[in-house]
Design a protein that fits this description.
- The chain is mainly alpha-helical and about 900 residues long.
- The longest helix is centred in the middle third of the chain and has 28 residues, at about 400-430.
- The chain binds a DNA duplex (15 and 15 nucleotides) through α5, α7, α10, α14 and α17.
DNA sequence: CACTCCCGCCAATTA
DNA sequence: TAATTGGCGGGAGTG
């Protein structure tokens, strides 16, 4: 809307909003400026000051001015309104009926028009969900405020929440960097983990009965008044370094936002009532339970909820309890995050492929394990290192205030994550086992994990280890031979493919299709999505799809969806996806899920391929998400979407569009937008397994427009979009990256999109690579000479886990594929979604950073950070999964 | 009247 | 010290 308006506005009066805008605009944004005048003009001048204002504005577009204008605005408003105005918003641009319009519209933009939610949508509309890695979009608060016609204060409300989810990071003073949803799954995953630690208990109990409140209250106070809370808090903050510091921080909207999200992620029902949330969030605890405090908290929660709603992560619902109906919000975002992210860990310092510089860039990302990464605002670059340290330790010391805090938080997060991981590891023994979670994960995987790979069989170690530290490593492990199931791919594709593709949202298609390759030892992975993906598809069996969907439904509501899921699950092992819980339903996830499920089925098929040997092979499931990457192709996406699935994350927004395919899901889901992205092809992800160090990924991402195109061209020959190569491998192989790329590559991958880079990669890689890769599909592979390398059968290694999540996924896998179970099957899943891509993170960051900061600061930290970034990106991209179970091919 | 939540004062932080 | 951030809560719009 805004966009549209703008144009018009410019000329005229644009803006709906208020004069303010105009004024601002004038000053600020040149863009519009052109006309800006209008308002002024129009308005009668409102004021004397106008002139002045103008001057000021002109003089400085700067923020200060902005403010003034705000004040002025106020003045103006009346004027404007009276004048013409316009309708503010959208109403109509046309003022055709001036009279009518003016009167009505102008008057009031109505409160709704000014709502934070709407504002947030406008804000989000300005940036792509999955920006190319290469681009780093910077957001100028003043500019945005002026463009959107609101005071800066409001922008802070939005940005703070977005920052809590890592969709943006603060770069400098009035500047934020837009990251998009690439990292969203990771972030969510982290939050979920953290939330489980902190709130797990509560939620569980609470959920059961919805009355969380009551119980809640009780529990909280009794049991843990603090304990529970605290964790989080701490989480967020390190030690508390200073109480003082805390004070503000703690309350911070950011933290509240994270906690709020955690509640959803932890909640089985995925529904959280405001009052409960408020109670929980009032850390203070019991003491002050003041009513006023509660009230304030609720206000803030509304603010947060509005933003989250705009992001498509939650939706407003009402819970009717005995007492009556209460306002509540339901999580409709992705539920599972498979991949989790180990990203952080993954990167080991040394290994990082990334160059220091890049890292610096990455710094923003800081990756912490999960999401923490926040970047610190400005300096983050530097911080990268610290982060790492922090993550290890948990608390980082605060260096600078904010950053520190963030860092701290991160660190806490990290710590938590670490803990989780450890647990996982421990569990690992089971490795595969982990089941439950896993299951979910699987579904989720899309979302979350971009890549989760699970190694199944043999790799337990891998899996495990990886997590803890570097996630990636796993991969490295050895996968001796990697097996790729090319065949699989193909197989998969056949059958369902078509259907699948469509069915789902498309997104999957890719995934399934994708060929994935693993190299055993060397560890290479490739993922391909084909452009074609659709076709290819391997689609998994449809059923899978179904499952997904159902899953979605389930997630949200057990009832409807669940069945399906379960069934699916049951039915097909592969389906792992489903998790039970799904509560997850998160749409996004769900969406993802769907795809997954699709995938899943395939998996089986795949598996055969994959499967390498148990031990040896890696089985991993990788999920890739592809984000749509691009949004660019929305259209496509849309089209695709419908069915396709996938894209999920990215698309959540889109989701809506889509509709849900499924019935059940339908409910809410609609949102799924997933779809779209599907087309996108693939993503390349490189997982770093070893935290990068070990692997390099290459993605081709089709997705990106560019990429795609390229990919297409080039790829065609190849089917594979992505390839992963272990670092070692790289070394060995020339192809990997061109030298130059190498390092970059890794990063790139995620970025995949990043267009250029990735592209290049692909290309280059392709060319060179040949040796290396793998394509999944036969077709694809053509070039693949490498195939040989592949060894399909060889076991792949699973191992890529990145994050704990991964682990889960792994487990899930197991579950899923019972089939597999016996065998050492390996599964590969790729999730595109955000999560997976751990590796990627690094990549992205790099990009970003590079652009921005880069300066020296980059240093090491950067590298890993980059990784994170990359991952993120990856995640965002559409997810796709491939699963392969070695064993069960068909 | 209850639910939402906009608005913007003003303090904490930063630069 | 000035500017940027952002907590906070009054109170208005909605239903």
């Amino acid at each position: 809307e805004n966009i549209f308006d703008r144009p018009r506005m410019a000329p005229k009066t644009p803006i709906k909003n208020e004069p303010i805008d105009l004024s601002k605009q004038k000053g600020c944004t040149p863009e519009r400026n052109p006309i800006t005048p209008v308002k002024v003009i129009d308005r009668p001048q409102p004021d004397p000051w106008t002139p002045t204002a103008n001057l000021k504005m002109l003089v400085s577009a700067a923020s200060p001015d902005m403010r003034d204008r705000e004040k002025k605005k106020e003045l103006f408003r009346p004027i404007e309104n009276s004048e013409q105005s316009d309708t503010p918003d959208s109403l109509q641009y046309d003022i055709v009926d001036d009279s009518m319009v003016d009167e009505f519209e102008k008057q009031r933009p109505s409160r709704k028009q000014k709502s934070l939610g709407l504002l947030c949508q406008k804000f989000l509309a300005r940036y792509p969900n999955y920006p190319l890695s290469t681009e780093k979009t910077t957001i100028s608060l003043d500019e945005v405020a002026s463009i959107l016609g609101v005071e800066r204060r409001r922008i802070y409300d939005i940005v703070n929440v977005l920052e809590s989810l890592h969709l943006v990071s603060r770069v400098a003073k009035n500047q934020y960097c837009w990251h998009g949803r690439h990292n969203l799954s990771q972030t969510l995953k982290m939050l979920q983990e953290a939330g489980e630690l902190q709130y797990g208990e509560l939620m569980t109990s609470q959920h059961k009965e919805q009355d969380l409140e009551d119980k809640f209250g009780e529990q909280k106070k009794e049991t843990i008044p603090d304990s529970q809370d605290r964790p989080l808090l701490e989480f967020s903050e390190p030690d508390c370094t200073s109480a003082s510091a805390n004070s503000r921080k703690d309350k911070s909207l950011r933290i509240m936002s994270q906690k709020f999200v955690m509640l959803f992620l932890v909640s089985k029902t995925k529904i959280v009532t405001l009052d409960i949330a408020a109670k929980i969030l009032i850390e203070e605890t019991q003491d002050t339970v003041d009513h006023s405090k509660f009230k304030t908290k609720v206000r803030r929660l509304y603010d947060i909820a509005n933003v989250l709603t705009s992001l498509g992560l939650i939706k407003k619902v009402h819970v009717t309890e005995e007492r009556g109906r209460k306002p509540a919000f339901k999580w409709i975002g992705p539920v599972e995050f498979p991949g989790k992210t180990d990203e952080l860990r993954g990167h080991s310092p040394t290994s990082d492929p990334l160059p220091g510089t890049q890292r610096g860039a990455c710094a923003q990302y800081k990756t912490s394990a999960t999401g923490k990464q926040r970047f610190t605002r400005h300096a983050s670059f530097n911080r990268a290192q610290p982060c790492e340290a922090a993550r290890r330790k948990v608390n980082s010391e605060p260096n600078s205030p904010r950053q520190e805090r963030q860092d701290e938080n991160c660190s806490k997060m990290i710590n938590l994550a670490a803990v989780c991981r450890q647990k996982i590891e421990e569990d690992t023994g089971n490795k595969a086992c982990d089941t439950e979670t896993i299951l979910n994960p699987s579904k989720n995987s899309n979302t979350t994990l971009p890549f989760s790979l699970l190694p199944v069989p043999g790799d337990s170690d891998f899996c495990v280890n990886p997590l803890p530290q570097a996630v990636f490593p796993v991969v490295q492990a050895d996968v001796p031979s990697f097996s790729l199931p090319f065949g699989i791919t193909s197989q998969a594709s056949h059958p369902s493919t078509p259907a699948a593709s469509k069915t789902e949202n498309g997104k999957p298609t890719l995934v399934p299709n994708q060929p994935f390759l693993c190299f055993p030892s060397s560890s290479l992975f490739m993922l391909c999505g084909g452009l074609q993906e659709n076709n290819l598809s391997e689609s998994l069996p449809t059923s899978g799809d179904v499952g997904h969907r159902s899953a979605e439904a389930q997630a949200a509501v057990p009832p409807a969806g669940s069945q399906k899921r379960s069934s699916h699950k049951c039915s097909s092992p592969s389906a792992p996806v489903d998790d039970e819980e799904p509560a997850a339903k998160k749409q996004t996830l769900e969406q993802s899920d769907l795809p997954l499920s699709l995938v899943v089925p395939k998996k089986p098929s795949e598996s055969p391929k994959a499967e390498p040997s148990p031990g040896s092979g890696c089985s991993s499931a990788v999920h890739l998400e592809m984000n749509c990457l691009d949004l660019a192709s929305p259209a496509a996406a849309d089209a695709a979407n419908k069915e396709s699935t996938k894209p999920l994350d990215c698309q959540e927004q889109e989701k809506q569009n889509k509709d849900t395919d499924e019935p059940s899901p339908g409910n809410e889901h609609i949102s799924k937008e997933n779809a779209n992205q599907p087309f996108q092809p693939q993503y390349l992800y490189v997982q770093p397994t070893a935290g990068l160090s070990s692997f390099n990924f290459l993605f081709s991402a089709n997705q990106a427009p560019r990429a795609i195109s390229l990919a297409a061209n080039q790829l065609p020959s190849l089917s594979v979009p992505c390839v992963m190569v272990p670092s070692a491998a790289l070394a060995s192989f020339p192809l990997v990256c061109s030298p130059s790329f190498t390092s970059p590559l890794s990063p790139v991958p995620d970025g995949s999109f990043s267009a250029a880079a990735s592209t290049s990669f692909s290309m280059s890689s392709l060319a060179s690579t040949t040796p290396v890769f793998i394509s999944t599909t036969a077709v694809v592979t053509p070039k693949v000479s490498p195939a040989p390398s592949l060894d399909p059968q060889q076991p792949a290694h699973p191992a890529l886990h990145l994050s704990p999540v991964l682990t889960r996924s792994c487990s899930a896998v197991k579950l899923d594929s019972p089939v597999c179970m016996g065998h050492p099957v390996t599964l590969l899943k790729l999730q595109q979604p955000s999560s997976a891509p751990l590796t990627p993170k690094s990549i992205r960051p790099a990009h970003h950073e590079a652009f921005f900061k880069t300066p020296g600061s980059l240093g090491d930290p950067v590298a890993w950070k980059k990784n994170e970034g990359n991952q993120t990106r990856n995640a965002s991209s559409v997810q796709r999964r491939l699963e392969i179970s070695s064993t069960s091919p068909d």
